[in-house]
Each structure stands twice: as C-alpha cells, then as structure tokens.
Write a structure and sequence with these properties.
Elements (H helix, E strand, L loop, with lengths): L8 H11 L31 E3 L2 E11 L5 E10 L5 H11 L6 E2 L8 E7 L2 E6 L8 H15 L7 E6 L5 E2 L2 E2 L10 H17 L1 H4 L1 E11 L5 E10 L4 H9 L9 E2 L13 E4 L5 E7 L3 H7 L4 H13 L7 E6 L2 E2 L2 E4 L2 E4 L15 E10 L4 E9 H4 L2 H10 L8 E2 L11 E7 L2 E6 L1 H6 L5 H16 L6 E6 L26
Parallel strand pairs: 1-22, 6-7, 14-15, 23-24
Antiparallel strand pairs: 2-3, 2-4, 5-6, 8-9, 10-11, 10-12, 13-14, 15-16, 17-18, 19-20, 19-21, 22-23
Helix pairs in contact: 10-12
C-alpha cells in the first residue's frame, strides 16, 4: 500500500518480515528452492466512504398460536432488516404481519403493527398500535406470550415488556409486567393470571402476588435512564405504592445507575387514578413536604426523579396516561435545572414531557498499566449504543477520571474526523480511517500497536451481530500499521489481551 510513503522502503520491509504478512518462508529451505505461501481466498469489499449497513438476514423461529389455542407453534422464517432497523424489530414486524400456515392463528388483531421498540439491559420494550386493544384478555396474554418467546431467542433480549399505544395493557385487572420465555401451556398462563386477580382482590397481603416490573434509574453519566427488572410482591393493596417502595432503595447494579428517590421520601396517601375531562387516566402521587429539598440534599435530580417515576409507572400500571406529582398540597408544575426549563401543562407529566432518555450500557476497551486492555462501562443513548461511530468516538475521547489508571490506546492527534466511513456487512464491520490516522500510528511499538488494534476490534465486537473488523486507511488495506499486526484480513476479538 502507498500511504504517502511515510516510511522508507527498508524499515517497511523489515516490519513486514516481523509481521508474518510477507511471503518469506517460516522454515529453512534449500538454496534456490522456491517456496511461496498460498494466496488468501479473502476478497475484501470496497472501503466505505460514509456510514451504512447492508441488509441483514437471519433465519429465526416466529411463534404463532396453535389451533387449539393452548400452545405456541414455531415456524422458521427468513427475516430481513434494512437501514437502522434491528433484526429484533424485523422479527416482530414479520410476526404481526404474517398470515400463518393452515392450522395456526395470527398472534394479534388485524391491523396491529409495531410502533416502536427499545432494547436496553436485556429488556425489550415493545410498543404496539392501538388496534391491539381490541384483543380480549385471554387473546392479549397469548399475543404477549408469542412476542416474548419470539424475541427471547435473540441474545440481546432476556425479557419483554409489551405496551399498547405507549401504555401498559389490562389483563384481568392486574398488570402483566415484564415476561420471560413462557413455559407450559397458554391455557395455564391465562388461568394463572385469572387466579392471581381473584386472590389479589380477595386479600392482597395473603395472596402474595409477584410480578416482574421494569424499574428505571438514573445513569451515572449524561442523565440517561437505565432499566432494571425487579420481582416485586403486590401486598399493600395499592400497586403503585408497591412499585414506588421497590424503587426507593435504588438499583441492585450500582455500577451503571443510581437511585432516583431520596431515602426519606414518603407518600402521604395511597396513589389514586383520576379521570380527566378528556378521558385521560392520571395517577396522582402525593409526596411529603420537603421532597424536592431532600432530592437536592441527596445530590439527585428532580427531572430524573420525575422522569423515572413516569417511565416506571406508566409502563407497568394498566392504561395510565400521565402522572401528577404533589409536594405537600402543591403540584409540581415545572422543572428548572441546567438542562433548561420544562413546564408540565396542567401539571400532567408524561413520557413526552422529557427528551427520549433511555440509555444502554456498552463495553469499551482502554489500555491499562499492565500492558493489557481493560474494560470500561459507559451508558449511551440507545442510538449511540448501537452506532460503531459513536463507540469509536468514545475510544478517541479516552477514559474518564473514575475509570482509574487507564488511557486511550489511540494515538494523540486522532480525531473523529479521521473515521472516514463505516459499513456493516452481515457480521463483518468495515472501518475506513484516514491517512492521518495511519501516519500517527507509525511510531507505535509492538505492544502499542497490538493494544490499539484490539481496543478497536474488541469494542466493536461487543455490538450485537459483529464478530469481525476489517481496517482500511484512506480507502486501502495496509499490511500492518507499524509492522507487527497483520491487517490484510479481518480481525476477531482477542479476549486473551484483556486483563
């Protein structure tokens, strides 16, 4: 490769001999004996000049309702995702739109479509259009089971929370909650939901009904919300109170998020649902006087607290549209902070009152003092968490102070502008760096070159569906960067280089 003739011919030749990329024999041969290595069968795609993704396909099982309505039956389909669409989204869209083979029943009412999907920390939040509201309770349970079993086949999903029109649906007067893959018959699933309702209405404390609820907490960086699934018992007779009691101690995993309610927060009375003149169902929360002061003293954000309460309660309690939050007898009508002023019209707090704030954790790899790579965890917004460019940007920016004694493996002087283009082709990621990037890498020693290459490859391979990375420089493939790592073919992650 000719990258502006950065190195003289002799040093390059010497470096290639060390790298293993040349055709020099690896064992002694007799004089005049001709030995050559077989040519590589790998044909590199053209270097990307912008960011794009090819169509991704997968052969996966979609689950439909059997004719006896007691079981789910899986049928293999080839699903295709284009652009920024995920395979998980494509699977649900295909499941909802497909006419199953003879003897199977569609999973949702006619016209039901996917409004949106979030995947974070193993939780898939699936929002369906309002056509799904026409489903009877037993059909709703079957639909949720089919979506859950279909999605939990993917490595990125461990449980599923289904919404309809942005709200949690009713099923026999109790929340459905987050679901894991359904085992046993659909008949048993429906009977359990009915039985839970009867026992709860008779005596909540005695019934000891459990549900999985997705609680939202604040990330340590950038004020994003991170979901965490918790199993809670509905024992107080007021489900909203039970949920808030589960939120108050904070998350179990404190490495990426922290509490959103002060320890001394007190609900003065049971939360109640109020019906507005326009038909909206609003949950009223009455906290003690001094609630906002307690938040401030604990170093917590009122904005994040209200946002987390809204996302948690609206996505769990059936058919709640908004919250009103009172401090003593005064409604909280606005938030003023470093992010600006947000006014809640008529005091109604909805998910739309806030910017889309859900985050997802990612793993980054930086150089440690041990000569190996060390992991650092970040919470990024959902779009950035699945963007190779955003992850490379994080590597270029380097570690945070709280990451400890880590440093970026990428040379000083490299900027985000040095990433010329990125393209995903199935499980292969093509990354085109600038000639400036190549030039800045020429002085790296063997250890530094290895750490640089695998900081990038290991980080990008953490993304769903990526297991190989091909490097380009100014549109061309280089044999090496500084003579040690062969870059003529894609690299796979190197877990052995991680401390």
């Amino acid at each position: 490769m000719n990258i502006r003739r950065i190195l003289s011919i002799l040093p390059v030749a010497a470096a290639l001999l060390l790298s293993g990329c040349s055709s020099a024999p690896l064992v002694p041969v007799q004089e005049n004996e001709f030995v050559s290595l077989p040519p590589s069968a790998y044909q590199a795609p053209a270097a990307p000049v912008s960011d794009s993704r090819s169509e991704r396909t997968a052969r996966t099982m979609l689950y439909f309702i059997a004719s006896d309505q007691q079981q789910l039956t899986g049928i293999y389909y080839t699903i295709r995702a284009t652009g920024n669409q995920t395979l998980e989204e494509a699977a649900v869209m295909r499941l909802l739109s497909s006419t199953p083979v003879l003897g199977l029943i569609p999973v949702a009412p006619e016209g039901t479509a996917l409004r949106g999907m979030e995947i974070s920390q193993g939780v898939a939040t699936v929002d369906l259009t309002v056509e799904a509201l026409t489903a009877q309770p037993q059909d709703l349970m079957r639909m949720i089971a089919a979506i859950t079993v279909t999605l939990t086949q993917f490595d990125s999903v461990s449980c599923v929370n289904v919404l309809i029109g942005g709200r949690a649906p009713y099923a026999y007067d109790l929340p459905v909650g987050a679901r894991t893959a359904t085992e046993g018959s659909l008949t048993g699933l429906i009977a359990q939901q009915q039985s839970d309702t009867e026992r709860y209405l008779a005596d909540p404390a005695q019934a000891q009904i459990e549900r999985q609820v997705v609680l939202y907490f604040s990330s340590w960086q950038d004020d994003l919300l991170v979901p965490e699934v918790a199993s809670i018992r509905l024992t107080s007779g007021n489900i909203a109170r039970d949920v808030i009691a589960a939120m108050t101690p904070g998350p179990k995993d404190t490495s990426i998020s922290h509490r959103v309610l002060p320890a001394d927060a007190v609900l003065l009375r049971d939360p109640v649902t109020e019906i507005q003149d326009d038909g909206r169902r609003v949950l009223r929360l009455d906290f003690n006087e001094g609630f906002t002061q307690s938040l401030s003293q604990a170093g917590l954000s009122l904005r994040q607290s209200l946002c987390a309460l809204t996302y948690t309660l609206v996505r769990f309690l059936p058919e709640i549209d908004a919250l009103t939050v009172y401090e003593g007898d005064q409604p909280i009508r606005s938030v003023d902070d470093a992010q600006g002023r947000t006014v809640f019209r008529q005091g109604l707090i909805t998910a739309d009152s806030f910017d889309h704030r859900i985050g997802r954790s990612v793993q980054l790899y930086f150089a440690g003092n041990s000569g190996k790579l060390e992991r650092a965890q970040r919470v990024l917004d959902l779009a950035s968490a699945v963007s190779p460019r955003a992850l490379l940007s994080q590597l270029i920016q380097g570690p945070y102070v709280f990451d400890g004694a880590l440093h970026s493996a990428i040379p000083d002087g490299v900027t985000e502008a040095d990433v010329l283009g990125i393209r995903q082709e199935d499980n292969l990621l093509l990354v085109n760096f600038s000639d400036n990037f190549y030039r800045l890498c020429q002085s790296l020693n063997e250890s530094e070159e290895r750490l640089l290459a695998y900081a990038i490859v290991n980080t990008l391979s953490e993304m769903d569906g990526i297991d190989r990375v091909q490097f380009y420089f100014a549109g061309e493939i280089a044999d090496t960067l500084s003579g040690n790592i062969c870059l003529t073919e894609p690299l796979i992650a190197n877990p052995g280089l991680t401390g």
